[in-house]
Amino acid sequence: xxxxxxxxxxFGDHRPDMWEKVFSHxxxxxxxxxxxxxxxxxxxxxxxxxxxxxxxxxxIAVDELKAAGVELLIAHIPCWTSPNLVxxxxxxxxxxxxxxxxxxxxxxxxxxxxxxxxxxxxxxxxHKNIRDKYSVSSYEKKLLPLIRAAAVKQKLKGSxxxxxxxxxxxxxxxxxxxxxxRSQFGIDTEHLAQIEIVRLxxxxxxxxxxxxxxxxxxxxxxxxxxDDKFTKEKFxxxxxxxxxxxxxxxxxxxxxxxxxxxxxLSNSYIPQCMTQALLANHEDAExxxxxxxxxxEADADGALTQQILKILSGGLPTFFADVxxxxxxxxxxYCVNCxxxxxxxxxxxxxxxxxxxxxxxxxxxxxxxxxxxYFNASEGPMxxxxxxxxxxxxxxxxxxxxxxxxTQEMVDEFVEARGPHQLPTLFAKVxxxxxxxxxxxxxxxxxxxxxNYLTExxxxxxxxxxxxxxxx
Length: 472
Known about the structure:
Elements: E1 5-10, H1 16-38, E2 44-47, H2 55-67, E3 72-76, H3 83-93, E4 97-102, H4 109-122, E5 127-132, H5 136-156, E6 160-164, H6 178-185, E7 188-192, H7 195-202, H8 206-219, E8 222-223, H9 232-251, E9 256-259, H10 264-269, H11 273-279, E10 283-284, E11 287-288, E12 294-295, H12 300-312, E13 318-327, E14 332-336, H13 352-356, E15 360-363, E16 371-374, E17 380-390, E18 393-403, H14 408-418, E19 425-429, H15 434-440, E20 445-450, H16 454-464, E21 467-470
Parallel strand pairs: 1-2, 1-3, 3-4, 4-5, 6-7, 6-9, 8-15, 9-12, 18-21
Antiparallel strand pairs: 10-11, 13-14, 13-20, 14-19, 15-16, 17-18, 17-20, 18-19
């Protein structure tokens, strides 16, 4: 798991007489209490061990935190402290800041918190206030979503999106403006032709391919090879494409990607379904690895949504699919990918071998053949989401839901309706106005991650200047 790197400074009263006679006796224990509580959260805490009271002390503390690469600042204000000194420290840090106070009437903490917050508001500095009793459960509810959201904003700055190919089969909602991303999110784009994947796949050492194929053969439920479209040679080529893409991601420093695939690769070379199945996963035959969100059909906004969800979840594998069918009667959204869903969602097990045991690899219907993953995603809480634009401005659909195991009746109906074109599916149980969804939702694709991050996504939208549209 990857945790937000949080900087922490306690600010105290700079007046020696008031500090010694009034504030130090209560503030020093509260400084220790705040640190003790924060250390129980899933964060990487980087702290200034001494209370910062003077401009010089504040400068030293801030510079230490900046050198450590923190992603946001918690400014702990347990007593009265001159607001201008807090503003000085916050501006010197230059990061999103959460002001944390307390409820003890003897500390003068409320007036200190409001004085600093009001001064920051006057200069329009982005911050939020938390006033609490140093409770772990309360910090988890109030503080942690703000920390995670701030980490998203900071991690997106300077990140790299890898785009392989251009618009796929006319899907305009997959297009994006690289300069808008630069301006709004601080993201750079590395644009490569899809043929680079093919070129490197053809040069891939056979031993790497064999290692990956044998690992999958030994652990998958079945791999339904045949003598026509899904031969072992075609599967090898798919795996070589995955390994090539994995190498390109590393070589170019890409954080999340999208591949066009259809129709050049899917028709004339090989569908990129194994890349979709494995790249976003946390391990493969070569060992543990960083999860890399990936969208099909060159869907940039779908990939960016996954990257946000990955950061919020601490690095969990992400999910990408079509909004393939809406069953109003059962209140279910059928999320179907055209060839692969990340293997993690077959069982949600940290051991990928256990997830592979639930997956049948069967022939793709695409002209170039190859294999697809076939399974129904395992049940559990699911955070679906999607960035989309109206009039050039970003909105985010936020859909908390549960993945459920379909009844046999549902499966039979779906198989009969779709015929031989059976694909991996997540059956999402939802609870919202489906007509409103149909008329508002701005894409045919959807992204997701295991868990529920509604509060965090609302904070992310606030920080990134995105209008949130909550369903459910």
